Amino acid sequence: MKTSLRQLRYFAAVARTGSATRAAALLNVSQPSVSAAVRDLEETLGQPLFLRRPAQGLTLTPFGAEKARAAHDILSRVEALAETPDAPPRQRLQLGYFATLGPTWIPAIARHLATALPALDLGLHECDLDRIARDLASGVIDCAISYDIGLPPGTPRRVLAEVAAQALVPPDHPLATRARVDLAALATCDFILIDLPISREFLMVPFWQRGLSPRIRLRTASIDMARQMVAAGLGVSLLYTPPGPAAAGGAVLRPLADPLPVQRLVLAHEERRAADPLIAATAGAIAACFPGATG
């Protein structure tokens, strides 16, 4: 087996980013060298590591996901060898999080982890809901903070909080004067949709169940952009993620009159990591940031 550490690093970076171009930028090398290293590794291993779809990036095959976990383990061990004997041992953890949750919770969590686990080297990965499941399976991330949506059955998870859907309306909109807003009223307005895989369908289902079709005027993958668009009077929106301090940007949040189920915010990890002391310690530290956390 003629497999080099360079090939493993390049492969791990592509698995992490889903793109040879983004991996090259991350590693500060040329894109052709990354692509060549991955092709050489596939030739050595005798099977494709990625599915290649035009305009959709690279997706790990089941074989590739297995090898990505092995590559991450090997690279972690190599990094551990480079630590000086008199230095305190470091532990590395890659934490994924659903993109819309980041501004509200991740800064405080990262600050708390730095205090609670000072020997932890934390890596952060912003993901959509679909990518969280894939990156957990491939070992690109060790655990993830996400809504309890789209995770494979049996995925171990710890409930951190429960959040309710809220209407987001411009400050001078007639709906801003109401104590509660119903979905039927939102459906009559120009609507700004959080356009992320799985999320977009999840936000539309309550409308569809009531025979309603919101007039989608604008789409954005950024929750902060959606808030600013609403504040500018471009439309209304429906959100589960509460804003962080001073993050509403002038838009007005109103509880819904319709009885919608609350959504669970969870910390999830692969079943094979259930007995990992690092996962247990990290889960405990993150749960301390959520007074109502269970499990």
What is the number of beta strands? 12
Task: Enumerate the spans where pLDDT stays under 50 for 5 or more consecutive residues.
Answer: none
CATH homology-level superfamily of the largest domain? Periplasmic binding protein-like II
Order of helices and strands: HHHEEHEHEHEEEHEHEHEEEH
Tell me about the biggest sheet? 5 strands, mixed
- Measured by DSSP, the beta-strand proportion falls in 15-25%
Domain count:
3
Q: Taking strands numbered 1, 2, ... along the chain, how are they ordered across the largest sheet?
A: 4-3-5-12-6
- Mean pLDDT equals 87
Question: What is the name of the CATH architecture of the largest domain?
Answer: 3-Layer(aba) Sandwich
Output the CATH topology of the largest domain.
D-Maltodextrin-Binding Protein, domain 2
- Principal-axis shape: globular
- Distance between the ends: 44 Å
* Secondary structure category: alpha/beta
- Rounded to an integer in angstroms, the radius of gyration calculated over CA atoms is 21 Å
Q: Supply the CATH class of the largest domain.
A: Alpha Beta
Q: Count of helical segments?
A: 10
Residues in helices, as a percent range: 25-40%
Question: How does this model look, in words?
Answer:
This protein has 295 residues and is an alpha/beta fold. It folds into three domains: 1-82, Orthogonal Bundle (Arc Repressor Mutant, subunit A), CATH 1.10.10.10; 86-161 and 263-295, D-Maltodextrin-Binding Protein, domain 2 (3-Layer(aba) Sandwich), CATH 3.40.190; 165-261, 3-Layer(aba) Sandwich (D-Maltodextrin-Binding Protein, domain 2), CATH 3.40.190. 40% of the residues lie in helices and 22% in strands. The protein has ten helices and twelve strands. Helix 5 links the parallel strand 3 and strand 4. Helix 1 (5-17) packs across helix 4 (62-81) and helix 2 (20-27) crosses helix 3 (31-45). The protein starts with a helix and ends in an 8-residue tail after the last helix. The model has no long low-confidence stretch (mean pLDDT 87).
